[in-house]
From TrEMBL:
Belongs to the SS18 family. It comes from Engystomops pustulosus. It holds the Pfam family SSXT. InterPro entries: SS18_N (IPR007726). Residues 14-68 form the SS18 N-terminal domain. This is SS18 N-terminal domain-containing protein.
């Protein structure tokens, strides 16, 4: 997702707790497993519903990533 979608006032200012992000990543993992299972069973309606939730989660995570300030690079000597 492009930073174009993140409002200027939020760019570089969002701080989201790491456990929230991890919870979403875990949920996405489970969603992908369910999507694959339903695809294999030919159950398109259920598959589509899970794909919509996965898409929403991915857009949210991308928005957070675009709005989060970059971590300072570690200096190695």
């Amino acid at each position: 997702m492009s930073v174009v979608f993140v409002p200027e006032r939020l760019r570089g200012r969002v701080q989201v707790p790491e456990d929230n992000v991890q919870r979403l990543l875990d949920e996405n993992d489970q969603l992908i497993r369910c999507i694959v299972e339903y695809q294999n069973k030919g159950r398109a309606v259920e598959c589509s519903q899970y794909q919509q939730v996965l898409h929403r989660n991915l857009i949210y995570l991308a928005t957070i990533a675009d709005a989060t300030p970059p971590e300072p690079e570690k200096q190695t000597t």
